[in-house]
Design brief:
The chain contains 12 helices and 11 strands. The chain is α/β, with parallel strands linked by helices. The longest helix has 17 residues. The radius of gyration is 26 Å and the shape is elongated.
Length: 320
């Protein structure tokens, strides 16, 4: 059986597509003036949107925000069909399903993506729970099913992501145009991530050190081979080191029977192929000798890389 007979399974079951709108300088229509609408208005203006807030009776929160934000315009009336013209997004806050449906229908006729606050059935997109380390932004969504769970997860992730990541993300913006050499660029970013997670504020010395290290490694053209013994179908039993190696691999070989949920933990851009022939060692060596990082997901009952333990694969292990 060839590799083509056992293709990598495409991603499935994604509840929604996570996307990030660039709203800088773009017009957004927001219908409603209550506290919930004011919170959405604050998020939208923070993203650089020009906001038209249409509300016959804006609440105190919305009026206070309008007084502080010059890009927010209060329009003291009910919304009209013409309000959708030129809008990048439309947000509505309505008490009844009838009002929500009417607004959503009008937005779709105008081909404007629409969100109705707290009424997911009428939405083209949802707002996620945000972790702000701008320009690094993470968002969590449960599709409206469990907002409390999303908030709990945000709390845990906030604790894991140091505030200094904000300065590292800004440094990444400044340093990216300086990376002209494609052979060392990826290694630069891998080293960058390792330093960003362990060091406080970056400096120009960090850039010089990272680019020098990345170039040294690129010049050396060092490949790497790693055998990961898969002893369980539970991806949560992978060690942190195993996960890091998987996500850094250029090529992933996997035995038949390795669960798809473990293979999917590898870097999405990596080449993934089954061990369909007997000469797996030669194939792995060829990839490594071209400077690639190779991981072999070897399905075994016990861990370790002792050829005696690997049984029939012992010859390949000894060869490597």
């Amino acid at each position: 059986m060839s590799d083509a007979d056992d293709p990598q399974r495409p991603m499935q079951g994604l509840a929604s597509l996570p996307v990030f709108f660039d709203l800088r300088g773009k017009r957004v229509l927001l219908a409603g003036g209550a506290a919930g609408a004011a919170w959405k208005a604050e998020l939208l203006q923070a993203a650089g949107a020009k906001l038209d807030v249409v509300s016959a009776e804006p609440g105190p929160e919305m009026r206070a925000l309008a007084a502080q934000v010059p890009t927010l315009t209060l329009v003291p009336r009910d919304w009209q069909d013409d309000d959708f013209i030129g809008a990048a997004l439309a947000i509505g806050d309505f008490a009844t399903k009838t009002e929500a449906a009417r607004f959503a229908d009008a937005a779709r006729r105008a081909r404007v993506p629409v969100n109705i606050i707290d009424k997911p059935a009428y939405c083209d997109f949802q707002f996620g729970t945000i972790i702000d380390r701008s320009p690094l932004i993470a968002a969590i969504s449960t599709g409206g099913a469990a907002p409390v769970l999303a908030l709990a997860l945000r709390g845990r992730l906030e604790a894991l992501l140091p505030p200094s990541l904000k300065t590292w993300a800004k440094a990444a913006q400044a340093w990216r145009p300086k990376l002209a050499d494609p052979t060392s660029r990826r290694r630069f970013w891998e080293l960058f991530v390792a330093r960003a997670l362990t060091t406080q504020a970056p400096s120009d010395k960090d850039f010089d050190a990272l680019i020098a290290a990345a170039r040294r490694e690129a010049d050396a053209q060092n490949g790497a081979m790693t055998i990961l013994a898969i002893t369980s179908d539970d991806p949560e039993r992978l060690t942190l080191k195993a996960l890091r190696l998987l996500q850094a691999a250029d090529v992933v070989f996997y035995d038949r029977g390795v669960p798809p949920q473990i293979i999917e933990m590898a870097r999405r851009e990596s080449i993934k192929t089954t061990c369909a022939d007997e000469d797996i060692a030669t194939r792995i060596l060829a990839e490594a000798q071209h400077g690639r990082r190779v991981v072999w997901l070897a399905l075994r009952d016990v861990s370790g890389i002792d050829p005696a333990i690997f049984g029939a694969a012992g010859f390949d292990v000894e060869t490597l």
